Amino acid sequence: MIRTPLRPLARILDARQKGENPDVIENENIRQRHEDMRNAARARAEGRLLVLGLMFFCAFTVVGARMGLMAASEPAEPRHRGGGVEIAAQRADIVDRQGRILATNMETHSLYAHPHQMIEPERAARALAGIFPDLQEDKLTKLFTGSRKFVWVKKTLSPEQQQAVHDIGEPGLLFGPREMRLYPNGSVAAHVLGGARFDKEDVSSADVVGVAGVEGFFDKTLRDPARQGAPVQLSIDLTLQSASEDVLSSGMKLMNAKGAASVLMDAYTGEILSMVSLPDFDPNNRPHPASAGHPDDHPTFNRAVQGVYELGSTFKIFASAQALDLGLVTPETPIDIRGPLKWGKHTIKDFSNYGKELSVTKVIVKSSNIGTARLAQRIGVTRQKEFLQALGMFEHTPVELTEARGGNPLLPRNWSELSTMTISYGHGLSTSPLHLAVGYAAIANGGRVVVPTLLKQSGSQLGPQVLAANSAEASRAMLRLVVKHPDGTANFGEVAGYAVAGKTGTADKPKPTGGYYDDRVIATFASLFPAHDPRYVLIVTLDEPAVMALGEQRRTAGWTAVPVAAEMITRLAPLMGLRPQVEPEAMAGITLASQ
Hints:
The protein is 35% helix and 20% strand. It is an alpha+beta fold. It has two domains: 94-233, Penicillin-binding protein 2a (Domain 2), CATH 3.90.1310; 240-285 and 297-575, DD-peptidase/beta-lactamase superfamily (Beta-lactamase, 3-Layer(aba) Sandwich), CATH 3.40.710. A hairpin with a 2-residue loop joins β19 (547-549) and β20. Residues 82-88 and 587-595 have low confidence and may be disordered.
């Protein structure tokens, strides 16, 4: 920019020559410069105002257009569309194999009191005792009129109870929001679910933690926020579980038993479709642990998993199956059953006199203790131990229950040849009904071990081969005859349209102080169905059953556990989608080439 000088030399000299005042020239130049500066500032201001005006025009145009669109559209509720992670429930749901709710959460309120804020503490105590029968008026009055400034009244309230407390109108009674665990099916699958309780709690919230069952086993999983509330899906079928409980409960009462247990398991996946232990409880109001008495007398005791018993003659099929697998015998091999069989000071006897010898098949059908002991002698101590260990009979089952760790089998201290003989027919080794289900699953599926599970599986989960397929098939044929043959000990177990195979077991109940009761037994029936193509294993155990039949008091499994199991199969098989079928018979002289 070229600045014009305020006193140009040429004009100044010219003005002096003409006698004019040179200051006039300087003043004129100053005025012109100031006028140019004002013109430039005005131009800048006018430009800025034009830009600002255009901005205001665009803004009002957008606002007006948006208002016009909103006025022309239908009204709707505003919705939050934040991109953050949704806050899931504190504890995930538990569902059955069909996705039906077994355990969920419910919003509720707790009730607490600030006695120093109460106007009429005596009246409040009297009113609360009327709403909650388990609360004592005199105790509440003492708490409300004492020196305490905080008193827990109830940890959870129903909506009706909350309204009733609200109607008291006492400002010192306050409510705190919280989330509680709810089991909508009541006592159904109580021992599987276990239960939950409050851990850390205050007036506005409380942590819910599992204390038993799958609630305890999967506690960290159910509380994991990374799962975003995804439910834990069990293998249990709610319909089968409910039906099993109904039948077993009726059977327990009919047979005058003090307790009962049942396990229904898929022999190829290890999935437990139903597990029942009676007596049971409501997990919404789980009883306190037993402080006295025998553990299995308490309703929270899971007989199917924690209860380790001598399961009697149900073990005989393991001895015969192993003898077949080792090539020591065939189903027709005669076994010397003359008795009693003496071993030192011990005597082994049969329930009846079956003659001098029986085939291996007849040993199982008639349930001969002596015949099974003879088979065990041929097998030997070492091989028997290896086989039973392979079936998982030496440690607690790995099923997903906190109580499973307490179901360790009771093994003989000194596994002698006598132990081998008595264990072969179910005495001297105590296991749980679930252990027995795993053993029978190996016979049902062709000789493969499965791991019992309470989680839904996507397909077969067969483990190591412990029996040859032909040995397992021959064993299934023997078990079928136990039910089908007129001399079989389980002929009350026949179900029309559903071929049942199985073995009874009646074991004397041990005394807590040692020895055995003369009039108390554990009756068990271990079964497979359908026998010609077994898919499912059902174990039914009754504790101290006794029923009058044909003028006599009967305690054996054939009279007690077997009819109950037959009724369960009659009820459960159609619910499982099994159609009644005519059992295929062997075709003499004909070989089936294809099917």
